[in-house]
């Protein structure tokens, strides 16, 4: 078990988790009954491992008004380590964007909007990450490499369009960039 998962929770962390649940019920992603059940589990949670399952399937939550982090590569290569719990908008045009999300912790969530035209976007995530690819490809490729291990890892939701390019997601040490 990861060392971060055994760290005891503070009331501020529990309140933040309840805020995520409030947003999810407001968005219609969970019912009020689920909200009540999960809120009770959040307040009963002692460690991050206890908390992670209550948030893992909710997808990224971005605070209203918080700007997305933008990463753009045009006929070049750009490597970034974005902040977790934010939206990242990556665009590669005849170039490459490499996003290192391997430092994400269980329960953290990020949305990546990945658009490539004749370019490449590479995303590195932890081995236990839940990766949800909702994007499209036109004369291009999208791939997630490496099997997920364990449960309660961070959630990475990827969308966007790849045209005559590719997007590759690598888990753990399975990086071939």
Automatic annotation (TrEMBL):
One Pfam family, please name it: DUF1707
Fetch the InterPro entries from UniProt: DUF1707_SHOCT-like
Where on the tree of life does the source sit, at the highest rank? Bacteria
User: Which stretches make up the DUF1707 domain?
Assistant: 7-58
The record's PANTHER family line, in alphabetical order, gives:
MEMBRANE PROTEIN (PTHR40763:SF5), MEMBRANE PROTEIN-RELATED (PTHR40763)
The entry's protein name is DUF1707 domain-containing protein
């Amino acid at each position: 078990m990861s060392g971060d998962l055994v760290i005891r929770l503070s009331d501020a962390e529990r309140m933040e988790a309840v805020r995520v649940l409030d947003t999810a019920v407001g968005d219609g992603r969970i019912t009020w009954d689920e909200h009540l059940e999960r809120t009770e589990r959040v307040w009963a949670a002692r460690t991050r491992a206890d908390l992670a399952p209550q948030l893992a399937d909710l997808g990224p939550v971005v605070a209203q008004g918080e700007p997305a982090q933008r990463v753009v590569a045009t006929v070049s290569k750009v490597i970034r380590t974005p902040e977790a719990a934010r939206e990242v908008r990556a665009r590669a045009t005849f170039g490459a964007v490499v996003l290192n999300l391997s430092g994400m912790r269980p329960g953290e969530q990020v949305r990546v909007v990945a658009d490539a035209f004749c370019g490449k976007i590479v995303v590195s995530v932890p081995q236990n990450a839940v990766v949800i690819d909702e994007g499209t490809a036109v004369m291009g490729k999208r791939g997630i490499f490496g099997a997920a291990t364990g449960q309660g890892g961070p959630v990475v939701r990827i969308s966007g369009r790849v045209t005559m390019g590719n997007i590759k997601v690598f888990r753990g040490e399975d990086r071939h960039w």
